[in-house]
Amino acid sequence: MFVFDRDAYERRMTWYRHARFGMFLHWGLYAIPARGEWIRSVEQMPEEPYRRYFEEFNPVDFDARRWARAAKEAGMQYVVLTAKHHDGFCLFDSQYTDWKSTNTPFGRDIVREFVDAVRAEGLRVGLYYSLLDWHHPDYPHRHDANHPDRNNESVSDEGRDFDRYLDYMHAQVRELCTNYGKIDVLWFDFSYDNLRGEAWRGTELMHMVRSLQPDVIVDNRLEVSGEGTGRWRPVPEAIRGDPQPDRRMDGREP
Q1: What secondary structure does DSSP assign to the chain, as a single string?
Q2: CA-CA distance, 36 to 242, in Å (whole number)?
Q3: Band of the pLDDT at 3, cuts 50, 70, 90?
Q4: pLDDT for position 225
Q5: Residue-level pLDDT at 241
Q6: Per-residue pLDDT for 234 more than 70?
Q7: What whole-number distance in Å separates Cα of residue 177 and Cα of residue 52?
Q8: Residue 254: its pLDDT value, please?
């Protein structure tokens, strides 16, 4: 059973309360068409035409050291990179998928270069990881509010196993928490409709994250969507994320 540790929470939040200024980097295959990271959903684009961006992905001018240096010179204290966005494409060398930067013409582990460069500048490292995955065959397709194939009548959810997807998702989070050193911020994105909280096996996921990265700051999107609706709903404290409220709405201490 999860027991909220106020002292541990205060320790891990200390630097963040003083940092004030950081940078969030959205980057992936969607940078090629340059119509936003939601392009597949907004345009209801099937994967086949989207795959050409995977085959083209070769950002030869990418230099994580220049990014990190620019952030440092601007006065930033931390940088967060999209390790995996909703399209499922990974900027890290995950052993659980072929849909990753190391299999593109670029052929490099971008997260590895990013974390090394950011740390070299003395900045805090953050990684974003989407709970959604429009590439994975077991993620819900039809009638899902966000999936590109939601209105595609030729697509069925028959035979899809969401638990199999959750095993995959948890395994990738374990990779990020294990293979890249100390992570200061882990940004999950996001919950919606019936996919929130324990639908993600959220308590199990957070126990794993806290065991591997006890000092990491985690956002609250295992339980809510981007606009923050439901922030004060009664939810298991293990998945509430940081920052925790000073007091619950009923006045009891958390």
Answers
A1: -----HHHHHHHHHHHHHH--EEEE--SGGGTTTS-TTHHHHTT--HHHHHHHHHH---TT--HHHHHHHHHHTT--EEEEEEE-TT--BSS--TT-S-BGGGSSS---HHHHHHHHHHHTTPEEEEEEES--SSSTTS--TT-SS-TTTT-TT---TT--HHHHHHHHHHHHHHHHHHSS--SEEEEE--BTTBSGGGGTHHHHHHHHHHH-TT-EE-STTTS-TT-TTTTS---GGGT-SSPPSS-TTS---
A2: 28
A3: confident
A4: 77
A5: 86
A6: no
A7: 30
A8: 38
Say what angle helices 162-179 and 202-212 make with each other, to 10 degrees. 10
* pLDDT tens string 64-89: 999 999 999 999 999 999 999 999 99
Q: What angle do CA 144, 145, 148 make, to 5 degrees?
A: 75
DSSP state of 197: G
Residues 6+ apart with CB under 8 A from 66: none
Residues paired with 124 in a beta bridge: 78
Query: Per the confidence metrics, is the pTM higher than 0.90?
Result: yes
What local confidence, expressed as pLDDT, does residue 226 receive? 61
Which residue is associated with the tokens 């440092």? Answer: 72
Going by C-alpha positions, the residue among 123, 107, 201 that lies closest to residue 163 is 201
Output the furthest CA–CA distance in the chain (Å, rounded): 56
How far apart, in whole angstroms, are the C-alpha atoms of residue 219 and residue 239? Answer: 9
